[in-house]
Amino acid sequence: MARNRGLERREEGATPLPGGMTLYVKPAADGASVGDCPFAHFVRMVLAEKGLAYDLVPSTPESKPRWLADDYGGKMPALRHRKECYVDSEVIAQYLDFFFQEPELSAGSAETEEAATAVEGFFPAMARFVKDEGTDDEEASEKRAALEGKLGVLEGHLGKEGRTGRYLVGDGEKFTLLDCSMAPKLYAMDVCLREIKGNAVDMGKYPMVRKYMDALFERPSFRSTVEYGPETVVWGWTTYH
User: Fold this and answer.
1) Which helix (H) or strand (E) segment is 235 a member of?
2) Is residue 183 scored above 50 in pLDDT?
3) Which residues are catalytic?
């Protein structure tokens, strides 16, 4: 059974130190280079923001370590930090932010909850629309409308009076874990709408979302971890996601 540990201090009082980290991720079509998994990319952005060194190991079902398959169900992304391993991207991100606090990527609970509500359901709605290959125009229209509904909620949140920054939480001035989580998902949407869905959604109707995407994509932590290109995103979404 996979163990989601790491958010509590060790009983012996030892605080984890940098170094000794290995991140196992899904590979691209060649089985060796980095795939387009948005959850792995989320973790990599957190690691990049904190300047933490790690070994990156794209792993196929055949090449992943036996212990990862036996003890953690083979789930990825998986962060091995010396003797410990964590396999849920949110747990990994919280672990990194708890023990390696420079820079801190957390924000106030009320502000974070409000922002999280604004993006709730976005990724499932996007995935359902992108993966729809049916011939039912009515069903396709419903899935597109569901995605546009989520984009509209995000647009409203980003355009609220009093916001002064470019990011998601609170007044938008602080870059947080939630931004790290959203950046790869919005990148996948950007590529898929253009390359798979023929620009079926007019993003011009969501200027605040577009500005937010631009801010995320300009971030060094994003640029340094998006070595997989649009062709890998298309391959991933038409093969596995």
Assistant:
1) helix 230-239
2) yes
3) 37
For residue 175, give the nearest of 116, 117, 110, 105 by alpha carbon: 105
Minimum mean pLDDT range among 8-17, 132-141, 156-165, 210-219: 8-17
Ordered DSSP codes for 178-211: HHHHHHHHHHHHHHHHHHTS-S-S-GGG-HHHHH
Q: What is the crossing angle of helices 89-99 and 177-195, to 10°?
A: 140
**What is the chain's alpha carbon radius of gyration, rounded to the nearest angstrom?**
18
Q: How far apart are CA 116 and CA 181, in angstroms?
A: 11
Q: How far is CA 99 from CA 18, 56, 161, 212, 230, in A?
A: 9, 20, 35, 28, 34
Residue with tokens 């030892």: 14
Given a contact cutoff of 8 angstroms between Cβ atoms, the answer to whether 215 and 167 are in contact is: yes
CA distance 92 to 104: 15
Residue 17 confidence class, pLDDT cut points 50, 70, 90: confident
For position 5, what pLDDT does the model report? Answer: 43
Which amino acid is it at 141? S
String of b and e for 79-91 (b: at least 16 CB within 10 Å)?
Answer: bbbeeebbbbbeb
Distance CA 221, CA 223 (A): 6
Cα separation, 183 vs 240, whole angstroms: 20
